[in-house]
# Entry
Amino acid sequence: MRGKFIGEYFKDMTTTNYTATNSSVGIVETQYYTYAERGKEHKLESGDTLGPITLAYETYGELNANKSNAILALHALSGDAHAAGVHKGQDNAGWWDDMIGPGKAFDTNRYFVICSNIIGGCKGSTGPSSINPATGKPYALDFPFITVADMVHAQRHLIDHLGIERLLCVSGGSMGGMQALQWVASYPERVRSAIPIATALKHSPQQIAFNEVVRQSIMADPAWREGNYYEYGQPEKGLSVARMIGHITFMSDQSMEEKFSRRLKSGKFSFGFDPDFEVEGYLHYRGANFVKRFDANSYLYITKAFDYFDLSGKKLIPHGKIIDTRFLVISFKSDWLYPSYQSQEIVRLLKRRHVDATYCELNSTYGHDAFLVEVEEQTTLITHFLDKTFNGYLVVDRYGI
Amino acid sequence: MASEEIRIDHSIIYSIVEPGSRVLDLGCGEGDLLYPLVRDKQVRAQGIELDDKAIQECVKKGLSVFHDDIENSLREYPDHSFDYVILNQSMQEVKKVDYVIREALRIGGKVIVGFPNFAYIKSRLMLFFHGKAPITKSLPYLWFDTPNVRFLSITDFRDFCAEKKIRIMEAHYLGEGEMVSFWPNLLALNAIFVLVK
# Structure
């Protein structure tokens, strides 16, 4: 299996932005937690119920005695619980391996890092491709609609199960950032700090529009069969086009120019409709890869969930409520999918409510993918922010300031 | 940075700010002014800074900073969000000075403004005898390479406050390494004013 994100693809190409380090959490194993058994089904925001629910998760580092060093890492749309290290017998590192590990931004020598998958997904957690206990077949479109709040609600059960009362930090990029914000909205007293990266309080019409095109391209494929394709195989054409659209939005004009320019795959025009340009080849490659690893129905359900997401106004922090969660908000200059103005909206809301917060727009050319690729500056910000959250101002003397 | 001598303007502002107060520093740079206030006086501090490298330095010091320019950073704050709003050596880089001072007085109880005095004697001499744009310790930039967009004297600023009905609670005048007690508009390199509505 190939790596999951374009970030890894970029790493092969650049040495400047990728800090190569040999420190890894090593061999890890995905674990599973199941709850909401029969009679105790999870009530969803839509009013429907779901159960039993399994969540896939991984952990790195050690939980300290008073359980105060736990960090929850939250993945983006197509991510999974495998955030760091490698699985036995395989060599693909986790999706945030550059950021999670000994001496890294989320330093596993000091912190206990949990990465939880989401409900609705297809990476070991309950989703549309899971077996519906009522029928013995995959849920397909019988799977209930889920929201980001439902995903976070499920994760809270996992955190309860791990015996952690208060998380030191919740953090993630893109949809992972939405989950981090949702954690603050749903359970502010259980979150000491939040690091939402390249994310938004709500999707703009443009973001919803991209997601709708993504969904329509899946559903327009006859192989989708109204969602009942599990006996026949994935709607490969539709799903791969959906992913191609995604990859365009993850890059910037400049990063595409630098990476592909107008270079041709075979040096000359074919005067046919096969991919001529390298950028076309790249998108086809990404699309073809994606259908091997991600369930089309999950893509539909999850994109819908984050289109519904909206914590604007008083929904992040209810009126009159005082929260002591600290924030580090990060955005990237060239990210046009989740532009900086959306992070600034988060910041404005925090200002109005006197929440202790830091905001930094990092100067990257990598577009939305920057949160996976821009390791160095994110590491500086996150390392020190976590240090301050964990140790208070005592830390500062250590730096000799 | 650790061993760098404390700047005289910083030590004056440090002595003005009451322990435990809420402070907003507009154009906080690397946090050299805010950090001692947080460490020794348990101030609740927030910085605003445009330079992302400087923000990284602030975060290393454990400070909370927003990446923004000064003019855009004030609107969202409710009235009286801070006890002090500081504009030290940043007012002269702001275009809408009137707006920024008014907003600072809205969201803060007291506003501390520190700025270089354009009417300092060496500036006057340079302009008069050499006919050149002055370069002094407090205005060290060449004309084509300065971040400053506003040039003012201490008298100008006093006139401004009088016209805008802003009360000056305290004034401190800084010369070359010592305080200036007379003819400040001629002898001071920098001035620090504490303003209230």
